[in-house]
Amino acid sequence: MDLDPDHSSARGDQEALRRLLLSTVEKAGLPGPPPELSLPLRPAAVEAARLAGREHPLAPERAAELARRLGEAAAALPPEAATGPVEWPVELVDPDELPHLRRAVARSTELPPTAALGRWRPADRAVFASAVRLLDAVWPRMLGELRATVAQVALLDGAAVDGHADTTVPGAVLIGRHLLSSTPAGLPASVGLAEALVYEGTRSRCAAAAARGPFPAAEGDGACHRAVGLARCVLLYERLLGAGPAAEPAMEERYGRLRAELGSAAGGGRLLARIDRLTA
């Protein structure tokens, strides 16, 4: 996967994942979702197909349960579910709608025990819209890839919770609620949230790309996903700093910290060298 985001190749990953999902469901003997499944794929449908592939052969009761989940996840998305701004009408989903993400939070070894799914408030949606507009202005290719890859964005409550992307449910991004507020250093909420969307969206894209391999075993390389996510965040701040002086000291400080994190990450030095060549 390249550092430069790309809608076309991201869409290709989704097409490959769709074909793999349909094949896995067929092999498991489940009634499959329609071949014309909309993209990006809904994360709950990917989860149900993954479980069917891993647990094959399925007991009758389990087959019925996964078939029910798959049918619900593959059902037509109601228009009111696309609650994001016009630039990215993604699903901004609440806990009652997210049994698959509750399971993702419960099995995560990355998240602290305090992490829990939260509800979107009107003020949260306003910050999300401003972050999306910021991405559209400074890095439209990144927003294009997010539109092709991410179907749902959810909020996480709890101390020290930044975000999460689960390889079992690619296409879902979880964002810590505290990122919807400006930082004490003066980094605007729209900038911090845009960074989180780039980072977690990239990790979700990596998970979808990894699924081109054997479906039940495609877990991806977490260290690689982290390094690519950090590299893209560095590129985001280079664009932000080049776009104008607003909140420049806070953005300069965050940019420096991200470069340091990337430099210490596995494979990060190589990615930093590529970034410096690209921006020289």
Strand tally is 5
> Helix and strand string, N-terminal first?
HHHEHEHHEEEHHHH
Q: Overall 3D geometry?
A: globular
Percentage of β-strand residues: 5-15%
The gyration radius over C-alpha positions equals 19 Å
Number of helical segments? Answer: 10
What is the average of the pLDDT values?
85
User: Low-confidence stretches at least 5 residues in length (pLDDT < 50)?
Assistant: 213-220
What structural class do you assign from the helix and strand content?
A: alpha/beta
Please explain how this structure is put together.
- With 280 residues, the chain is an alpha/beta fold.
- The chain is 56% helix and 6% strand.
- Strands 1, 2, 3, 4 and 5 form a 5-stranded mixed beta sheet that branches.
- A hairpin with a 7-residue loop joins strand 4 and strand 5.
- Helix 1 crosses helix 2, helix 5 packs across helix 6 and helix 6 packs across helix 7.
- The chain is globular and about 60 Å long.
In short:
With 280 residues, the chain is of the alpha/beta class.
Key structural traits:
single chain; 280 residues; alpha/beta; five-stranded mixed beta sheet; 6% strand
Please render the helix and strand layout as text.
Layout: H1 7-27, H2 43-55, H3 60-74, E1 91-92, H4 99-107, E2 116-118, H5 122-138, H6 140-149, E3 152-157, E4 163-164, E5 172-176, H7 189-210, H8 222-243, H9 248-264, H10 268-279
Parallel strand pairs: 1-3, 3-5
Antiparallel strand pairs: 2-3, 4-5
Helix pairs in contact: 1-2, 1-6, 2-3, 5-6, 5-7, 6-7, 7-8, 8-9, 8-10, 9-10
